[in-house]
Amino acid sequence: MAISANRIDDYFTRYAATLTNLDAGAWAKLWGEPGVIVDDRASMVAESREAMVQGLSMSFPLYKKLGLASVRHEVCDSTAVSEKLALVHVRFDFVDADGDALSDITSYYLLRDNGFGLQATVCIETDAAEKLQTLAAERGVELPG
Question: Across the chain, which distance is largest between two alpha carbons, in Å?
């Protein structure tokens, strides 16, 4: 039986909460090892959860400078690839402390049911880099190298 829509939504509810709470450890547990993030410019592979925690934690100061207070999600579409794999199109909304929208990004995640829960194995970013650059420019925040 394919991964249900409820399980996928629950997964992304937890995923968004880890970003809202700046909890890199909980975020990393939502990923299989290795974890792969791909966009138009590069592919990044995190071989271990420790590497994932380190990588995400390095983003937290930037998130704070940009005013990120919470993250919401919307599952746009989901395709069962097999009984244990689903390709999910998801939109994340990034919100400031006043509840105003900062930005949104759209990504595709390949989720695997490992028998103990869902984990992302691959994330394909479609517009995150561009939207981050736009938000940083609007906020007068310099992006690292």
Answer: 49
